[in-house]
Specification:
By secondary structure, the chain is α+β, with helices and mostly antiparallel strands. It is built from 11 helices and 24 strands. The protein is globular. It starts with a helix and ends in a 34-residue tail after the last strand.
């Protein structure tokens, strides 16, 4: 309901201006606009009420009336004062919004699977521009949030300290809006119990971070056409109406393309701890970033995760492996040459809501084949896993000729001899290390030694199933049925010439 109210409010405030004078006529118009999107019953039953409050319109949302209407068999206890949002028209045609959102509120659901949610000290303020169909600025905060789930199988006790959020948006040069949202939360703590049914054990755990931050940004977001599409969807909820007006729907969908030019979001844990019966896992800094282009002919999707200062509970690991544990990692993966524009436009043109299904299986197969023919590619940009002694670096790409994956990856390792030495020492007492040791030696045999002493493996996995390492055939194509995998002991391997030798290793079948 809260999401529906938020969307309805945007649509209502995007309607023609009520004038600069706040009066009962304007309150009725705003009330009627909201009723169009959330239903007249919400107004008539007192769940939502619009009134004049000085120089502002007061939009009251009565949680009690909503809960009484949507009666639950579970016993409910709550302290939720009617939510009040003040909406003021500004001289430049924009609207200011503000509220103290239930400064001290809780909702307690009884029963064996009940939960209690409490929030204190919440505030919100923003400026909405109907011309841009967007909030141009905004700020919100919550002093404290707690959630306790009494689920007997998976109970959870979560708390978050001070939370703040800010938003700024402006008109984009090429149309739409550019925006940035920043959020921070302090003192995140979650206690949970995992019920492992297969072994009949309940495993307790705790996740915590002193600070979590997030940044979300957008370039060229088509806010107006997206809201027009939302307006159409809310006004035509039933299937019959959509079938009649699917021509209009197709036009709105096409006008909304490419939706945005670029969206990016990043999350960061400024210190992260996971506690379990086997010990404590900590990370000094953990972050992830995702970026996605709009629906375009040559789109790109990026994903990056970074980790620094990882520590693991050593008591749960073999002593010889401690020196090999990674402490830092960076992973960079992207998808490129992604033609979603052709896919979207062909789909919009072809679908028919009067048919079941609206799109045929044949169309879907042809669309997928056409999409893959545009040579989309997965790229592993330079990524590393390391500690003080060893660094593993990787980069490469995956393509899909003939709808089959084909990969080319380069792996460089600094400190490989230290890995071999640690495993060799462990092999004296640990059967697992003893099993791994010959494999490490065989893998080293295929390596090329670079001028700086690092070992490098260039691995090409072809669409026909063959695998080539540093120019040497490790596995033939799938069409060859006999001897599908060559034992490294039967192979002639590179001589580790720093200059690369001749044309690579020759493997003897």
């Amino acid at each position: 309901m809260s999401r529906a109210l938020s969307l309805a409010l945007l649509l209502a405030l995007s309607a023609p201006a009520f004038g600069q004078t706040v009066d009962s006529q304007g309150a009725k118009q705003l009330s009627d606009n909201l009723a169009r999107y959330i239903g007249r019953a919400a107004i008539d039953e007192g769940i939502l009420k619009v009134s004049v409050d000085g120089d502002a319109y007061r939009i009251g949302f009565d949680f009690g009336a909503l809960l009484k209407k949507n009666h639950s068999n579970d016993p409910l206890t709550f302290n939720l004062e009617p939510f009040a949002l003040l909406v003021r028209p500004r001289s430049d045609g924009t609207w200011s919004l503000s509220s103290d959102i239930t400064p001290d509120a809780f909702l307690d659901v009884g029963g064996p699977g009940g939960a209690r949610l409490s929030v204190s000290g919440a505030t919100f303020s923003a400026v909405y521009d109907p011309a841009l169909v967007a909030f141009t600025s905004g700020a919100s905060s919550i002093a404290d949030t707690k959630l306790v789930s009494r689920d007997p199988k998976d109970p959870v006790d979560l708390s978050i300290g001070a939370f703040t959020s800010s938003l700024n948006a402006s008109k984009a040069a090429a149309g739409g809006i550019d925006f940035t949202m920043n959020q921070t939360a302090a003192d995140f703590v979650e206690h949970f119990t995992y019920d492992a049914d297969e072994i009949g054990v309940k495993v307790p755990g705790t996740l915590s971070s002193p600070k979590v931050s997030a940044e979300i940004s957008g370039k060229g977001v088509h806010s107006k056409t997206l809201l027009e599409l939302l307006d159409f969807a809310l006004a035509n909820r039933d299937d019959a109406s959509l079938k009649i007006k699917q021509g209009e729907l197709k036009k709105l969908l096409t006008n909304a393309l490419p939706l945005w030019d670029r969206l990016e979001e990043s999350y960061r844990f400024h210190g992260f701890t996971a506690e379990s019966p086997v010990g404590k896992f900590t990370v000094a800094d953990l972050s992830a970033r995702t970026g996605i282009d709009g629906i375009s002919k040559n789109g790109k999707v990026d994903y990056t995760i970074k980790m620094a200062g990882l520590t693991l509970p050593e008591r749960s690991l073999p002593s010889w492996s401690v020196a090999l544990l990674p402490t830092d990692a960076e992973l960079h993966v992207s998808g490129v040459n992604i033609d979603l524009d052709s896919l979207a436009r062909k789909t919009i043109e072809a679908f028919d809501l009067a048919k079941d299904p609206p799109l045929s299986d044949e169309f879907g197969e042809a669309l997928a084949a056409d999409f893959m023919a545009k040579t989309p590619k997965i790229v592993l940009d330079h990524s590393t896993i390391k500690n003080d002694s060893v660094e593993v670096a990787m980069e490469g790409e995956v393509t899909f000729p003939g709808m089959k994956p084909q990969a080319s990856v380069i792996v460089d390792i600094a400190g490989y001899d230290k890995i071999v030495q640690a495993v060799q020492e462990g092999a004296e007492t640990d059967p697992q290390a003893a099993q791994a040791f010959p494999g490490l030696l065989a893998i080293k045999g295929f390596a090329k030694t670079l001028p700086d002493g690092r070992f490098e493996w260039v691995v090409d996995a072809k669409a026909d199933g063959s695998v080539i390492v540093n120019g040497a055939m490790l596995k033939p194509a799938d069409a060859v049925q006999d001897n599908p995998i060559i034992d490294p002991s039967d192979a002639t391997v590179p001589d580790n010439d720093p200059d690369g030798g001749d044309n690579g290793a020759k493997l003897q079948p």
